[in-house]
Amino acid sequence: MPTLAELGWNDGWAAAWAELAASPELEAARAAGPLSPARVAVEHRGAVEVVDEAGAFWAEPTGKMFFAAGDRRALPVVGDWIAVGDAATARASGSRAPLRAILPRRTCLVRRAAGDREEPQPLAANVDVAFVVTSANQELKPRRLERYLTTVRDGGATPVIVLNKIDLVDDPAAMLATIAAVAGESPVVATTATTGGGLGALTPFLGPGRTAVVVGSSGVGKSTIVNALMAGEVALSTQPVSDLGDRGRHTTTRRELFVLADDGGVLIDTPGMRELQLWGDDEDPSASAFDDIAELAAACRFSDCRHREEPDCAVRAAVERGDLAAERLASFHKLAAERAASAARRPRRSR
């Protein structure tokens, strides 16, 4: 069984635990029995699978957390550190331990829930780095990558773009140049996950005490990358590219946490996302995924320039000179408008 340290526990979490465990919020819980920390490994509807240094068991939100959670971010998500009661009994009997509290998150990746619902959907918590996986075929879409970069940076994690299936194209340099145009300061790694090519470049972002999450669309090879990083152990079901064009088949069906061998840190796998709508209160995405536009905007005449019709706009001037792609600025405007519209539709209490 992994130790708490191998699950990502450190002095910072120990200090947060000491503060939470002694708080008035958990006074009644302390009276009911012993409390201990655990980490959420898998989410299910109404309950979660968690793990500590003695093994895995079930836990269930109780009391105020269960009944008064009007925001899904108030419920446990994969990667959370939580306080549970009587874990030994739950582990021995197969029952569900009461989940009393969630330790304050350091980071949290959140998107707008799929469909018409105006609510946040947390994807993973307490992650240090996010491997944003795309594939070197028709799935590669720079505008989609901008959405992922915005979501990851908004959540407080460091994005790393992984261009997988690089063996499928004749000119990898052209694809890497396309990605570099939107990556900004984010690292870009080219891989062939089926053979392990390039995966060694991901190991510097992993390691003791670190948590990484793998995100991307269906069929880009996320599960194959996770399997490879787990030293060949087949932890996830993978399928070959389908006969329908060159798209891979979707395999991962849930968000799940894995502990890497040799104290290599923690890795979270996620299902492929058909759509990624932004969730954020700031309508200006330049600080998240548009480093180049933010740098150019510093020379605009007005500090609140929206780069549309304002005079002496340095961003539009860069487009006219050919230094900034018009598609890049159009994407910036689209994501800004999407954020503003999303925030306006939310109830005042939610905002």
Descriptive account of the structure:
The protein folds into 3 domains: 11-102, OB fold (Dihydrolipoamide Acetyltransferase, E2P) (Beta Barrel), CATH 2.40.50.140; 108-269, 3-Layer(aba) Sandwich (Rossmann fold); 286-345, Probable gtpase engc, domain 3 (Ribonucleotide Reductase Protein R1, domain 1, Orthogonal Bundle), CATH 1.10.40.50. It is an alpha/beta fold. The chain has helices spanning 11-21, 27-32, 63-67, 87-93, 142-154, 172-183, 222-229, 286-289, 291-297, 314-321, 326-345, and strands at residues 35-44, 47-52, 55-61, 81-85, 96-102, 108-112, 120-125, 129-135, 158-164, 188-190, 211-216, 256-259, 266-269. The strands form 3 sheets. A 6-stranded mixed β-sheet has the order 10-9-8-11-13-12, with helices on both faces. A 5-stranded mixed β-barrel has the order 1-2-3-5-4. It is built from 11 helices and 13 strands. Helix content is 29%, strand content 22%.
Query: How many DSSP-defined strands?
Result: 13
Q: What is the CATH top level name of the largest domain?
A: Alpha Beta
CATH superfamily of the largest domain: P-loop containing nucleotide triphosphate hydrolases
Q: Quickly count the domains.
A: 3
Binned, the helix content reads 25-40%
The global form is globular
**Helix run count:** 11
Helix and strand content put the structural class at: alpha/beta
Q: Compute the average pLDDT.
A: 84
Main-sheet strand order equals 10-9-8-11-13-12
Radius of gyration: 22 Å
Q: Strand fraction band?
A: 15-25%
Unreliable runs, pLDDT <50, ≥5 residues? Answer: 234-250
Give the biggest sheet: 6 strands, mixed
CATH architecture assignment of the largest domain: 3-Layer(aba) Sandwich
Instruction: Write the H/E string, N to C.
Output: HHEEEHEHEEEEHEHEEHEEHHHH
Intertermini distance: 42 Å
CATH topology of the largest domain: Rossmann fold
